[in-house]
Amino acid sequence: MRVFGLNGRIIRALLGSQYATMLEYRAEIALWALSGLLPFIMLSLWSGSAARADLGLDGAALDRYFLSAFLVRQFSVVWVVYAFEEDALLGRLSPYLLQPLHPLWRYVAAHLGEQLTRLPFAVAIAAAFFVIQPQAFWIPSIGDVLLAWAATWMAFAIAFLLQSLIAALCFWSEKASALERLLFIPFLFLSGLLAPLTAFPPATRHAVQWTPFPYLIDFPARLLAGESVNLAAGFGAQLAWVLLLLPVVLWLWRAGVRRYSAMGA
Amino acid sequence: MVITAEGLSKTYRVADKQPGFVGTLQHFLRRRTRDVSAVQDVSFAIAPGEMVGFLGANGAGKTTTLKMLCGLIHPSAGRVSVAGHQPQRRHPDFLRRITLVMGQKQQLLWDLPPLDSLRVNAAVYGIPDGVASRRIRELADLLELGAELTRPVRKLSLGQRMKAELLAALLHEPQVLFLDEPTLGLDVNAQSRVRQFLADYNRRTGATVLLTSHYMADITALCPRVLLIHQGQLFHDGPLNRLVSRLAPERLVRLELEQPVPAEAFAGLGQLDSLETCAVNLRVAPDQLTTVVAQLLDRFDVRDLEISDPPVDQLIGALFHQGRL
User: Fold this and answer.
1) Which one of A7, A19, A98, A261 makes the best mutation probe of the B interface by having the most chain B beta carbons within 10 Å?
2) Is residue A21 part of a domain?
3) What is the chain A residue with the closest CA to B105?
4) Which of A110, A138, A222, B237 is deepest in the core (most CB within 10 A)?
5) Residues of B in contact with A22 (CB under 8 A)
6) Does a structural domain hold residue A125?
């Protein structure tokens, strides 16, 4: 029996093949993991800043927040728009559209395969961080880890759906990825990657809560770092964004496929 | 009928941009588009198990038609039915009954051996492991694939890759095969093996095949019936030999004479194509053939005489080249 077009065998086959593919690119993925060091750079900036006191995170809490932000980012990076755009332009999408499986599942599997490949590099970078900043070392509780893991998955789902929405625009514009770059700016500033959301003035912070961005980094990172968060509000907002984006993505995809003219195929 | 197309048409809207900087500025400020009619009012029907060749010059509308038949493109007008389905709905049951192989486009995962992609396909099409293994073995035997299945796709030659692509496209035993240039870029031996495989597959499974190819040898070897499309319109639907007589109503008479004869001697004996010392090539209308041959044998010392149809690939090649229909 299939649920959303999937069953256990398809999931195993897709994940297995995508993980094997990503292992072929392990050196590149290690570099990608290293390129995600932005939270550590921000940590060093904030650590030496007088404004640090305004963040509401004292001592090791700030170190742990940025380390958590790094880890959350590692497992919620999404690049579906670029992969999709290339596949559409080169005509590789056509065979996928002719199989009884929604093509987006292949991209989901590719991302999960990449995350699995990234895991040892992310762990190694975290271990190196503790060697450099031993005062930041902590072992989060199992409960925090599970909640943060769930929140990171939800963050990945939101990011994936947001990018899939833009990717579906490739059916209309062959260079829809330019839109993704526009989205990257608010993501960078409002997600909590550059600074915890507590750094913003209350009015801005309140407004940002109505966007998907704080639930992509800030909320799961705070969970992992052991900070107090409103669980119901955080997970509720994540679920709401997933439920809001999913039908829009599916509708846009269907409309796009109708328009599809197999570019380059 | 397993494939029916009635009044099938497709019109694309394409950007119309003049070259150069001024053209770029104009295009940026006021984008102009024009409608291009790729396929116009095409109708045909194909019975189960038929192997049909789809001929046409580049840009004639072959690939567009194939894509409409397999559901990748929605027709602008007309009706199409394949295996009892409307292709553009891409119903899972329809997708399990068809396959599309497009020359150089690949569905195999580039960095992994073909077997990994086949394992994914088996899962996606719900083929039980045992059945999938048996089919892979059988198809690999027919395609003469062995160790190649466990080598990364990127390390395979073009011919090996094409055969592995065919295997992947046929693993679910589709009833209808749409093949767009399946032998493109292959050497003569590989082309011949793929041709033999397709003929065997059709015999074994009774699958319907619609095949486009620029190699006439593919068409003559596999397809008793051909569709010829020109500038989006169907020009011919029927046996290949009828297409040949339609394109070139004359027969080719090749003579080898005992001694040279001047060109004037062949006046009234058909159209003289070439004359090189004792070798003569004439084109003769079929209804005058017996009379002309009798006169040739009567007038000249003939060492050898051969009557044939003009080579089909030359005919169609010239047709595409000159665009004369």
Assistant:
1) A98
2) no
3) A92
4) A222
5) none
6) no
pLDDT tens-digit map of A11-60: 999 999 999 999 988 888 888 888 888 888 888 888 877 777 777 777 78
Contacts (Cβ under 8 Å, ≥6 apart) of A62? A43, A46, A47, A52, A55, A196
Residue A31 lies in a domain: no
pLDDT digits (tens, 9 = 90+) for A108-138: 999 999 999 999 999 999 999 999 989 888 8
B102 bridge partner residues? B180
How many domains does the structure of chain A reveal? 1
Domain span holding position A85: 37-96+140-259
- Is the residue at A4 inside a domain? no
A133 at the B interface (CB within 8 A)?
no
φ/ψ of A193, rounded to 5, equals -75, -40
Torsion angle defined by CA atoms of residues B132, B133, B137 and B138, in that order, rounded to the nearest 10 degrees: -40
Q: Say what the ipTM of the complex is.
A: 0.85
Which residues of chain A lie closer than 8 angstroms to B96, CB-CB? 100
Which residues from A are below 8 Å from B72, CB to CB?
A: 94, 97-98, 260, 262, 265
In chain B, which residue's Cα lies nearest the Cα of A95? B107
Task: Read off the tokens for B186.
Answer: 């292959």
CA B90 from centre of chain: 24
